[in-house]
Specification:
Blueprint lengths: L1 H14 L10 H7 L10 E3 L9 H19 L5 E4 L12 H10 L6 E4 L16 H15 L11 E7 L4 E6 L5 E3 L6 E4 L5 E3 L1 E5 L2 E5 L8 E4 L9 E3 L8 E2 L2
Parallel strand pairs: 1-2, 2-3
Antiparallel strand pairs: 4-5, 5-10, 6-12, 7-8, 7-11, 9-10, 11-13
Helix pairs in contact: 3-4
Length: 248
């Protein structure tokens, strides 16, 4: 890889008038394309911070890239990626929307997401705790690709909701041995048909979370962790955090 990168820099300087490694297609042409003749088992992907301003199109672009790489390697490569961690982005950014786009990208077959909601640092876009990031990626591969570990692959992921006149019950995949809360399950918000959100009380009821607020009758929508930076409070008993989400 070091050899490829040295040649990439040399060739880029000589042949590309833009001379910018972030230009469209440049990184693929010089860093990925040379690897295509080689057999690989799968892909680990850790990226996203620079995309907080175009979260709306991220899911489409990201899944298109995965499909393209699989086509290039002529196989359904397992693709495991890291959800970006909470961080104090600028007021105009909304990294929670990018995290949601990443979560929805799991609809693509043979993908998995290492959730890092609990290891973000408010003032550092690159959190220091990379050991847990690596362990969670390895867990996805061990469970889903190699089948050598019989345990839950990741933290809870929002699955569905049940509406009541004064509450919403949320169901999750990957609850493992059960759901657990820290710091009183903060970070939940609830809204009615007017889509106006209020802080909500969340309570674990078996494998579900019940969310409600006296300020919202006939609630329709819940979101969790819907900020650039927040502290994770919902986990499974294996200690893996739930992803932020919007039930819309």
């Amino acid at each position: 890889m070091k050899y490829l990168y040295k040649n990439f820099k040399k060739k880029l300087k000589k042949t590309n008038p833009i001379n910018n490694p972030n230009a469209y297609g440049v990184l693929f042409d010089y860093m990925i394309a040379p690897l295509i003749p080689y057999a690989i088992k799968g892909v680990l992907w850790y990226q996203g911070e620079s995309n907080v301003s175009n979260a709306k199109e991220y899911q489409e672009l990201f899944t298109a890239m995965i499909k393209d790489w699989r086509q290039k390697w002529t196989r359904q490569l397992p693709f495991y990626f890291v959800q970006i961690a909470p961080y104090k982005y600028t007021a105009s950014d909304a990294s929670q929307r990018l995290r949601e786009a990443q979560r929805k990208s799991l609809a693509l077959e043979n993908t998995g997401m290492a959730i890092t909601i609990d290891i973000g640092e408010e003032n550092d876009i690159h959190p220091a705790n990379k050991q847990d990031v690596g362990a969670r990626l390895a867990r996805l591969a061990l469970v889903n690709t190699y089948g050598v570990e019989e345990r839950v692959a990741t933290g809870p992921l929002y699955k569905s909701k049940t509406l009541f006149s004064n509450a919403i019950d949320l169901s999750f995949d990957f609850v493992g041995a059960g759901l657990m809360g820290k710091n009183w399950l903060k970070g939940f918000e609830i809204a009615g048909s007017n889509q106006k959100f209020f802080p909500a009380k969340a309570t674990i009821k078996g494998d579900k979370v019940r969310v409600q607020s006296p300020r919202v009758k006939n609630p329709q929508r819940v979101r969790y962790g819907w900020k650039n930076y927040f502290e994770a409070t919902l986990f499974n008993r294996e200690g893996l955090p739930a992803s932020s989400f919007d039930t819309e």
